[in-house]
Write a structure and sequence with these properties.
The protein is mainly α. The chain folds into 2 domains: 10-40; 44-104. The protein has 4 helices and no strands. The chain has helices spanning 12-21, 23-35, 58-71, 75-89.
Amino acid sequence: MAMTAIPKFRSEKEEAGWWDAHPKVITELFLKAKKEGRIKRLPVVRGATKPVTIRMPIADIETAQEMAEKRGLPYQTYIKGLLLVRWNANGRRDSPSAKRIPGT
């Protein structure tokens, strides 16, 4: 399979148009990189998570939803942030996931 020459581009628009018109070149480059062993998996950005179910009073969930909405967060993320803040306040600082959640 002959490799198509990639031209020099004068603008991002011109480059985008060229790549759009030549999808086989991307496939060629990918297969070549795979054959040469240059394709690697991305590292895991955050630790694995596990879904949990917590029974909470409806009023508490509604309050958390309102507070999360004010901060522009999903309410589960907001509740998780509250837990992390509390754990950090009690000296639990060794967890890799113990980072500050925006809006908490």
